[in-house]
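CORE FACILITY INTAKE
Project code: CF-77B
Contact: R.S. (postdoc)
Sample description: multi-component assembly, three entities in total
Requested service: structural model of the whole complex
Turnaround: standard
Below are the sequence entries exactly as provided by the requester. Do not edit them.
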Amino acid sequence: MYAYVVAGWLLLVGAFGIVRSRNLIHAVVCLSVCQSSTYVLLLAIGYQSHATAPVFASTVPTRAKVVDPVVQAMTLTDIVVSATVTALLLALAIQIAKRHHTVDPDDLSSLHG
Amino acid sequence: MTSATIVAALTIVALSGTATVLTGSPSRQAVALGGFGIVLTVLFVVLQAPDVALSQLAVGTAVVPLMVLLAIRKARNIR
Amino acid sequence: MTRATRLALFAVAAAGLAVLLGAAFADLPSFGAARHPYRDAAVTSAIAHHTANVVSSVNFDTRAIDTLGEEVILLASVVGVATLLRRAEGEHQRRGASGGRVLELTKFAGYQMLGVTLLIGFDVVAHGHVTPGGGFQGGVVLATGFHLLYVAGRYGALERLRPLPAFELGEAAGATGFAGLGLAGLAVLGGYLANLWPGGSFGQLLSAGTVPLLNIAVGIEVASGVVVLLAKFLEQAIAITDGGVE
């Protein structure tokens, strides 16, 4: 249960960072923290006490208890893909800096034609 | 892994995430994000997920902080 | 809306979300429980296909269609970043820009680690079906290892040794290779991305059929994609200047 609480805490703290932020790049990093809360939640759901990693070898027989590999498969592709999406957000922040000469979200309130 | 190890790793992750969010300056936050990435890697190893830990280590400590620092530098040069 | 109003609204919303999350978490199976039906199904299928790393089997054999979707997201994001960060009119791109001084020790350590890291990256990609690793992890290790050239040397050296069109082509080739192997599975076995020869001795390098091939395709795509991403950011931060004013 503590693992789920930590995942929820990371999500809320990341959201708080985005709301309070004065810099778009700071907000993107806080979004990264939010994303890692989903990784923690997924892995916590798949964990079994006293089980081992889902890789079989000569030292780990195929009868051994392992943790859930499906959530691990989801999480590891998610990590790489969300890094590229973070890159896309940072590129957008750079373009905003070029056009409006500011990265403060409070100054970016009006829509220019 | 004993549950004490898991509880300790989870607590360090929560503290590190809070510190990353509460850091004000974006360039310091990039370093804090790298530290958060390493702490997450340790948590993933404790939770018996070596593939995920490899992925997080490579991505969260090298690629993302580097891109954040380059974006900060570019935004600062423009203004 | 002022900052104070926004923070107050967030506090209310966060409290509500926390209550909902708490109720949802209370219904989840307890942490460390023993009942994982998906795990039993996945492990059985991986052992039947002679794949020692069950996570790789799930990613590239049982649920390979999800990995195809993730690859497409990666491709689209890299294309998006390359488009957003291209050199616009009125901007100049300096060729052979170089930074400040680098310590001799950093140079030495960087050049020593470059070969080792690239080798480790290839090893992680190739053994993805036997040990923890695979195309995604190995691809990122390869791409970041390549940038030790930037850390240890000068940006000009990195630019010369990194022909960007080759990496853009590599990314497309990786994605096409993955989809093409899927079509081969469709042609031979009647199922898209079916495992063509799921045999071999358990735990050896030559086992698990198409899983190592798909690993290599993903490794090429992820490595090329991350190199292109970092190249665009480095270009923007170092080489592209704004109409003559630095």
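Facility notes:
- Chain C touches chain A through 61 residues (CB under 8 Å).
- Chain C has a mean pLDDT of 86.
Invoice: internal transfer
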